[in-house]
Amino acid sequence: MRILITGAAGMVGRKLAARLHKDGSLAGRKITALDLHDIVPTDTLSMEDAHVAIHVGDLSEAGAAARLVEQKPDAIFHLAGIVSGEAEANFDLGYRVNLDGTRALFDAIRLADYRPRVIFTSSIAVFGAPFPDVISDDFHQTPLTSYGTQKLMGEALLADYTRRGFFDGIGIRLPTICVRPGKPNKAASGFFSGIIREPLNGVEAILPVPRSVVHTHASPRSAVGFLIHAAGIDGDAVGPRRNLTMPGVAVSVGEQIEALERIAGADVAGLIREETDETIWSIVKGWPTRFEATRARALGFTAEENFDDIVRVHIEDELGRTI
Amino acid sequence: MRILITGAAGMVGRKLAARLHKDGSLAGRKITALDLHDIVPTDTLSMEDAHVAIHVGDLSEAGAAARLVEQKPDAIFHLAGIVSGEAEANFDLGYRVNLDGTRALFDAIRLADYRPRVIFTSSIAVFGAPFPDVISDDFHQTPLTSYGTQKLMGEALLADYTRRGFFDGIGIRLPTICVRPGKPNKAASGFFSGIIREPLNGVEAILPVPRSVVHTHASPRSAVGFLIHAAGIDGDAVGPRRNLTMPGVAVSVGEQIEALERIAGADVAGLIREETDETIWSIVKGWPTRFEATRARALGFTAEENFDDIVRVHIEDELGRTI
């Protein structure tokens, strides 16, 4: 089978490509070609591997999406997008990439007139405060960011294009991905990963919110697992509601720190310095805490069971060690 | 104040224009200009009236929306759209008019750089079965038609553009409008109005579903009332969730018929012939029944209290009689 990944140079895209390359198959079928698309060339996989092709471009540009689906990939992972902070800072860019780019891809598939599985990464940013204690699968979508709005619009298109038979889409609402590898960034959510990643590297991390803050996390490995699982599930079993809130681990920041201490010791956990940042805290207060994710669990999507596992996954996958 | 209505030649648009013309004011301010836009010229109001201007065009065409907002109307009623059946039958037309047209208008307002009140007519078609017995304000939006999808996307844009300060938008999710004046049409929902309208004209009407079917209705007069009320409410009191499910009268078809009989007599009600149409019934089964509309009621939106009133409004407004 031929597979296309958009946003293949991003954190999840790179991990997904590497996993597919390693597995050699998807949903029980041998992978014969892997098209990796992004706005910058991805260096994840060697070009010497004949069945991997690197594509560079902007999906919202005329003809770009049509060229990508010309060879009718059987599964399309649409991960490309401008991140939340950038979509908020640059209104035009966010709508062009996240909405117009997604619509251009979906329309190119529609006009190619075949019916591939399309996996779209959406986000819990489609939800906006105030929230109940636990957010059920039938809670309304009222995003409070342009990014969340664009994801919601992509979800709506995905469901309608699926209903009309243009493709067989699954929207995956990712929780916060934790522990994100790499350097600290300025995202308001950065500390959720930072307080684990930095201490494990022997570096101090700032905790800008109280330990009582609760949030839902899944590891990068689980995120890739969601996408792989979505490629193989029975579309009929999903029904017309194509956008699924993924499971995750709902924990307080205090419980995150306890998990780190259990696994890496008090000295490591001691590298977290509590220094409340009112700006960050006020942003975080508007974020969802717990999700039921009943439908996704029933459809076989799984995440870690507890935060200890999330820390272990990070140590194994990013630090190359075993606990 | 200057007012713009798009879709001014439609049923609700015409009634809204006539009401504004009669009132002479909106939200306590004198109306100095009324711009009526549609794809066809509306003949509602005389052009001899100097402050009424008729505009004809397609909002999704380049420059059309910018020209409409050039004179910076203080209140914009965006009613223009392709109806449900047509949006389903003509995919491209539906997305072009309902999505691209709406976005073009919203972007023209954004680029005109002022902050008018924008009232957008959405629909309960943003919801899709299965439903709970009563649909609460926080029930998720999973449309089952392209029309509903396009309305949901318009709602999402409206909320985001409002949040970003480009305009001050209110989305009005209209229930089924009953009794629709005019000739019978082929819409699956047509019978809800037909079983009242036709008998009152001495004509037989077919009832294609069982009397137990429950649905929510509001009169055309109430629909106009929602829009007028939306123009005057305090945006801060609405908060970031800008799209409101309107109140209505939830009744069974049997209760509709009882109301007709109470008001117009058994002979009139006797003109309804029950002839179940499995196709129509299967469509109607997927439609929402009752809504809480708690937020809209709290914000002062009102509809009829019972179906008798809906029948009376039709007799007064369309047949020129009083009960």
UniProtKB/TrEMBL annotation, chains A, B:
Coiled coil: none
NCBIfam families with a match to the protein in the record: ErythonDh
Superkingdom of the organism of origin: Bacteria
One Pfam family it belongs to: Epimerase
Membrane-crossing residue ranges in chain numbering: none
CDD domains: Gne_like_SDR_e
Annotated protein name in UniProt: Nucleoside-diphosphate-sugar epimerase
Residue ranges of every copy of the NAD-dependent epimerase/dehydratase domain listed in the record: 3-202
This protein's record includes keyword NADP: yes
GO molecular function per UniProt: oxidoreductase activity
Keyword Nucleotide-binding: no
Keywords: Carbohydrate metabolism, NADP
